[in-house]
Amino acid sequence: MQVPLLDLRAQYSPLKSQFMAEIEAVCDSQALVLGPKTEAFEQAVSRYCGAKHCIGASSGTDAQLLLLMALEIGSGDEVITTPYTFFATAGCISRLGARPIFVDIDPVTYNICPTALEAALKAHPKARAIIPVHLYGCCADMAAIMALGAKYGVPVLEDAAQALGSQHLLGHAGAIGDAGWFSFYPTKNLGAFGDAGMVVCKDDALATKMRAMRNHGMEPRYYHEWIGGNFRIDAIQSAILSVKLPHLDTWSAGRRAHAAHYRAAFAKRGLDKVITLPVEPWADSGLANHHIYNQFIVRTTRRDDLRAHLTASKIGSEVYYPLPLHLQKCFSCLGHGPGDFPESERASHETLALPIYPELSTEQLDYVVDKIGEFFA
Phi and psi at residue 112, in whole multiples of 5°? Predict the structure, then answer.
């Protein structure tokens, strides 16, 4: 048996005729960038997650960059975030000349630790923003984070790149803080046919500014109040994502069902005693999408050997992230070294993503569990 980490063809095939019709409609219209398809998609996401303003962008990275530029974060500024995340989170901060201030993670949720966050806010009273990351499809502790943002007067910008649809008692991921962003990279739970992203916010003036800045700050045409960039989303990506969005909750339910199957199967074999399974911190909230499992993450000190065993058994897996950001060569100027953020470093050495996409069969899930049991036998 083969179990890929992700098989996008399984999602594509049932919707192929709809995709082709939408692509043909965009081609016939020749409205290829922004336009009616993008406006319709933005409105649909706004209704879905409760965000006041949704602004399509060329990627999740560009959505973050656009937001930071619109907030005029730049040289000499400090932005607090986590070193256990995808590179773009800190990369966009640095591209603008600002300094990432790293805060360690909660070892259970892998999200930013509120206690460590408050210590950083005290040590950096001029911080311009807090960027929590809703890693792997589970919301960070937004009640604590929002309270700290209010206490210290620092805006909260949510990196919800992996979390569209994830819910917290305070709202949907991305729409809780002052602003946030999503990624529609093909491997995300809602994935485009290429790169695409979206920035969301509550403030009317900020939204107006970002709509102009994603098009070189041009409003009206050929008049530039701000220096922006080419962060426009393509109409075809907007159309594709509009087809997929109504299915997102069903797909999330499939991922949650697979996660429950894994838990039961691991527990039945006693494997939950030798590997650490992902937690569901908001499971008692009554919210359906308290965790959307962009990834199903297990951890073990024998991670690399386990991964080699799974690979030999034709089971896909992935390591997110093998080297935390504070130890990346490009951030050596920040002066960090091993041991500075121990929980992030431990997670980078021990975590492994298993297949979780909704089209997996029960037989495939059981095969994964069987092979992990074989490894620990």
Answer: -55, 140
What would the pLDDT profile of 239-280 be if each residue is shown by its tens digit?
A: 999 999 999 999 999 999 999 999 999 999 999 999 999 999
Are 148 and 114 contacting, i.e. CB atoms less than 8 angstroms apart? yes
Domain boundary among 213, 245, 277: 245
Per-residue confidence (pLDDT) for residue 222, from 0 to 100: 94
Q: Are residues 221 and 259 in the same domain?
A: no
**Listed residue (196, 208, 117, 198) closest to 165, CA to CA:** 198
The rounded distance, in Å, linking the Cα atoms of 26 and 234 is 10
pLDDT band at 348 (very low <50, low <70, confident <90, very high): very high
Residue 343 identity = E
- Tell me if 84 is assigned to some domain: yes
Residues 228, 293: one domain? no
Between CA 271 and CA 289 the distance in angstroms is 26
Average pLDDT of every residue of the chain: 97
> What is this structure's pTM?
0.94
Q: Model confidence over 82-112: pLDDT tens digits? A: 999 999 999 999 999 999 999 999 999 999 9
Which pair of tokens denotes residue 113?
A: 């630790």
Backbone angles phi, psi at 142, to 5 degrees: -70, -25
- Domain membership flag for residue 3: no
**Given the DSSP bridges, would you call strands 99-102 and 78-81 parallel, antiparallel or unpaired?**
parallel
Q: How far apart are CA 188 and CA 282, in angstroms?
A: 21
Same domain, 164 and 134: yes
Q: What is the CATH number of the domain that holds 115?
A: 3.40.640.10
Tokens of 355: 């297949």
Determine the Cα–Cα distance for residues 96 and 69; give it in Å rounded to an integer.
8
